[in-house]
Amino acid sequence: MKTLLVDDTRTEQLVTSTFLKALGHEVVIAGSGAQALQLFQQHQPDLVLLDIVMPEMDGYEVVRQLREQSQNWVPVIFLSGKAEPQDILYGIECGADDYLVKPINKIILDAKMQAMERISRMRKQLIQTQDQLSQANLILEKQVSLDGLTGIANRREFDLHLSRELKRSQRDKQPLVLLLCDIDWFKNYNDYYGHIAGDHCLGKVAQALDRLSLRPGDLACRYGGEEFAMILPNTNLDGGISKAKAILKCIQELAIEHKKSSYDLITISVGISFCEQCQNISPQQLTQISDEALYQAKGKGRNTFHHIEQSSL
Which of 117, 165, 226, 227 is catalytic? Predict the structure, then answer.
């Protein structure tokens, strides 16, 4: 166990470090409180053996600063010639975890080191478990927010993101565009080519839309079935129309054969809703506007877009 031994007396350093090394421990020696703080950060010990009575900075002040500076708890054992019960209690109250009375008895030192080694081992296991749990939570959060088939954001993430961005647009009085996209004649595609091919098609379209979400606040997601959505914060109507055109072009360039389509290829229709400052409109209302615009786009023959501004409803 790596042990930071803090004592201003050379003789005490030599005796205690000899005991510790004989017990199989690694020892880092500090001759003052200031040096102890420096070496603690540098070596990250498993245990601190800390003399109380030292010039300039005593052990009480050292342990106080250690507790303030270190995010990870490291056990501290005070070393002192003061053996009165109130001295031991005060040392524990100041932040130490145990108390060893000088002159140090090798057997008692060994017993305390074994106990602290068990605590240190449990602390490391706890830290490792916490790290693993944090990683697992990150993975779980990612899985919860992603569509299992396409790998892009799912409907749940869409609802959360649209709510956040709409509130931000309302607060900052910034425009926002919402696009709803639907793959044209996708049921016919599934019936003709099969559901496995349909799943592959959904994946390719999803990834193409995701690549068009260029800014940090932009979000492409699977809205449901063959429907997709794209949220574009701080985007005016011209920007939304430009993005819709880019989507139409990008999906056509995938060149996915669709013999049951009027265009012989997989195409997509896009409905655009736009609000200038997004006041007095809810996420549900904005989505309904995009859905109506999508319906209008399909009515125009598909493979096109239609837009509706909030003010026009």
Answer: 226
